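#lab-general

N.A. 3:47 PM
ok so I finally got the sequence cleaned up, no stray characters, all 214 residues accounted for. can someone with queue access submit it? mine expired

B.Y. 3:52 PM
send it over

N.A. 3:53 PM
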Amino acid sequence: MENKYQSVLETFDKIASAYQDKFMDLDLYNDGFDLFCSLLEKPQASILELGCGPGNITRYLLAQRPDFQVEGIDIAPNMIELARQNNPSARFSVMDVREIDRLSGPFDGVMCGFCTPYLSKEECFKLIKDAAALLPAGGAFYCSTMEDDYDKSDYVTSSDGENTMFTYFHQADYVQEQLETEGFEVISFKRQEYIKDNGARFIDMIFIARKRQA
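B.Y. 4:20 PM
back already:
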């Protein structure tokens, strides 16, 4: 398990600049980000972004709501350095998303854009549980991942076409069940096709949820 995750760390650290070039201005997921923003009516709402990469999502969120107080984490130091350059007003630190139970919170929103494809089912469940613990009632949670039979999880070529990372595919039924178990109401669920440069087709799943009142 650790060897698989270590390869993810090393690859993302290596391809940080190429990842930034490819995804910084991608607008494919903006409608979901807009819905997430709309759930956070509180002025200066605090947001924790998990697996923030070069800060592409943070930059979009702050363009919509400059008042957001964003704290981003990523396990790859080179990604964090780029995120800081791209978003001087936000805070970023190197941290493993599997350890967010060490954070004190609360946050008004948790943004989790495509870091769960690198987490096992059990780790994904823990992340949802930990995110719920960091949110107050009414807090917003965004989670996107890649859909397929979990048993098909395997090494997938990274965005630069030169590296491979172990990628976990997840299933809508158990993600939805875990969200509900941890006290979330799913506001929106969407499937969306993503086509890589090499023609490989994947199905993305996007869950946007709100933590229920106790």
